[in-house]
Design goal:
The protein has 111 residues and is mostly helical. The chain has 2 domains: 51 residues; 46 residues. The protein is 60% helix and 0% strand. It has 7 helices and no strands. The chain is elongated. The relative contact order is 0.11.
């Protein structure tokens, strides 16, 4: 959001689009796109990302139901085994995303 705001300010100050691209460190295509978009009225980056669905969609969410079922049946099952079972059913991504999903779904144990 702050880059968009920076580009808007530079454009309003009368800088050329190519100059704005260099000063803001963004591509000329981005400057042209921002010039046609509505102005930034707030800088709540998290809310804006959620609203605009910015970012790559998580592929591990497609396996959430399967992981929940596994954890309901065997809550102490090793995460590596959950990864192995997910890969048997078509999960092709890396282990980090699946491990994070498992960690978010596991019950928090007492310390």
């Amino acid at each position: 959001m702050l880059k968009r705001h920076e580009v808007e300010i530079l454009l309003k100050a009368g800088h050329a689009k190519t100059e704005v691209a260099g000063l803001a460190g963004v591509s000329l295509c981005s400057v042209k796109r921002i010039a046609h978009e509505s102005a930034v009225v707030h800088v709540d980056d998290v809310a804006e990302r959620a609203k605009r669905q910015i970012g790559r969609p998580s592929t591990v969410q497609n396996f959430r139901k399967q992981v929940v079922e596994i954890l309901e049946q065997e809550p102490d099952l090793a995460t590596l085994e959950i990864l192995r079972r997910a890969r048997e059913t078509g999960y092709e991504e890396g282990k980090t995303a699946l491990y994070a999903l498992v960690a978010s779904l596991r019950p928090k144990w007492r310390t």
